[in-house]
Amino acid sequence: APLARVYAQHRNDLPNPYRRYAMGPVWRNEKPGPGRYRQFYQCDADIVGAPSVAADSEICAMLADTLETVGIPRGDYIVRVNNRKVLNGVLETMGLADDTQRDAVLRTIDKFDKVGEAGVRELLGKGRLDASGAYIDGVGLTDDQAAPVVAFLTSRGDTAAATLANLRDAIGGSDVGAEGVNELETMAELFDAGGYGADQILIDPSVVRGLGYYTGPVFEAELTFEIFDEKGRKRQFGSVSGGGRYDDLVKRFTGQAVPATGVSIGVDRLLAALREKGRIGSNPLGPVVVTVMDRDRMADYQAMVTELRNNGIRSEVYLGNPKNFGNQLKYADKRNSPIAIIEGGDEKDQGIVQIKDLILGAQIAQNATLEEWKERPSQFTVPRDQMLAKVREILATHNGETQGA
Hints:
Elements: H1 2-10, E1 18-27, E2 39-48, H2 53-70, E3 77-83, H3 84-94, H4 99-109, H5 112-124, E4 127-129, E5 135-137, H6 143-153, H7 160-171, H8 175-193, E6 201-203, E7 217-228, E8 234-245, H9 251-254, E9 260-266, H10 267-276, E10 288-290, H11 298-310, E11 315-317, H12 325-334, E12 339-342, H13 345-350, E13 352-357, H14 358-367, H15 370-375, E14 379-383, H16 387-403
Helix pairs in contact: 2-8, 3-6, 3-8, 4-5, 5-6, 6-7, 7-8
C-alpha cells in the first residue's frame, strides 16, 4: 500500500515501468515463532507498470539469485510459482455462485500443506476431526464438486510440461483458467531460457498464499533444509519470502488500472536461516576498539579509527574514562570486539602499535597449553604503517571461522 500511494502521487514523474526496492521495519499482529517476529525488517522489490509476466519471471529470478548470493546454496531453497487465475478457473468449473461458499473453499485450499489431500477432501465435504479431536464442519460439497479442487492441488508433475498439462485438465473449459495456465507456461519458458532449473524455480499449484490479494502469478521462496524448533523437533525452516501480481492495488488510489508485481523478503527470518546454516555467527563480531593510553593524544587515536573506517573496517575509540586499562578491555569484550589496538607513549616513540587479538586470546585462555600459548601469542607489535594490513588479516581469519562454523 505505501508503494501504491507513492506511485499514485508521483506517477507522472516516474519512469514507466517503474522498478524500485526498499528495506525497513514492518509490523504484524501474529503469533511469534522461530525466526518470526511481530516487528521485523522486510526488503521489498517491485515493478509497476509492466503487464507482461516477464516482469513476474524477473522478480522470481532475482529472488533465486538473491538467496544464493547471501549464502543459501542451490538445493537448500525453492521458489514456487502458481497463478490466481488458474484457481479462479477451477472455482468457475465447480459452478460455485455463492461467495460465502467460494470463500470457504479458498480457506480450505489454504490448509492443504497442513492436512494434505485427504484432509482437504474431508473439509470440502462434511468435515473432519482435527489433531485435538475437535470436529470441524466442512464446506458441504459433493465429491464431484470437490474433484476440480483436488485435481488442482495435486496437479504437480515431474516436469513443468506435465504440471501444465494437469492444470489444463483441472480447469476444464474456463477461459480465465486457460489464461492463467498460459501465463505459467510463458514463465516456465523464461526460467528455462535464463538457466534456472526446477531445483531453483518450480511451477507448483500448491502455492496458495494471499489468493484473495493477488490477481495473477503468486510465488514464495521456501528454505528446504531442516532445523530444530523450540521443542527440539525437526522441521523444515519454511518460507522466507513471498509475492505476486497485484494489478488492482494501485487502482484504489488512481482510479485507473495499473499493473504491478513484487516480492517481500523477511530479512530477520533470512538472517535466522543463515545462522542455522553457519553462514553468519549467532553473535556477530563487534568493532575494532582503539584504546586510549594518553588523554592528550586523542587526535592520534581518532586518526587510527579514521584509517580503519575509510577501509571498510568497523572501529571506534574508547570514550569512557581511560584511567583503568582493564575497563577498556572489559568494554571491548562486551562489544564483542575482535581486536583491541594499543599505542602508549613508548609505542608512539618507536613507531609501533600493539594489536590484541581478543578472540584468539579467549580461545587460548580456554583450551591452549603453555607451549601453544607461546607459539600463538594473542598480543604482538607491528610497525604503525602495517596496522591496517594486520587488522585485515586477523579479521579475515575470524570471519572465515565464523562462516565455517
